[in-house]
Amino acid sequence: MTPEPTTPRTLPRKTWRAATLAAALLAGTAIGGFAATSSFAAVDATGQTPTTAAPAPVNPPDATAAPRTLPDFTGLVTQVKPAVVSITTKLKADAGDDQQQAGPMQLPFPFNQMVPQQRAHAVEARGSGFIINANGTIVTNNHVVKDATSVSVTLDGGQVLAAKVVGRDPRTDIAILKVDAGHPLPYIQLGNSRDVKPGEWVVAMGNPFGLGGSVTAGIVSAVSRDIGAGPYDQFIQVDAPINQGNSGGPLFTQDGKVIGMNTAILSPTGGSVGIGFAIPSDMIRTVSAEIQQSGHVTRGFVGVEAQTIAGATARALHLTDNSGALLAGVQPDSPAAKAGLQPGDVIQQVNDQKITNPRDLALDVANIKPGDQAHFSVLRDGRTQDVAVTVGQMPNEQVASNDTGEHSRQGQIGLALAPLSPELRNQLDVPDGTQGAVVRGVRPGSPAETAGLQPGDIIVGVGNRPVSDPSEAAHAMRAALNGKDHALALRVIRDGQPVFVGVTTDEGGDQDAG
Question: Which pTM does this prediction carry?
Answer without folding.
Answer: 0.59
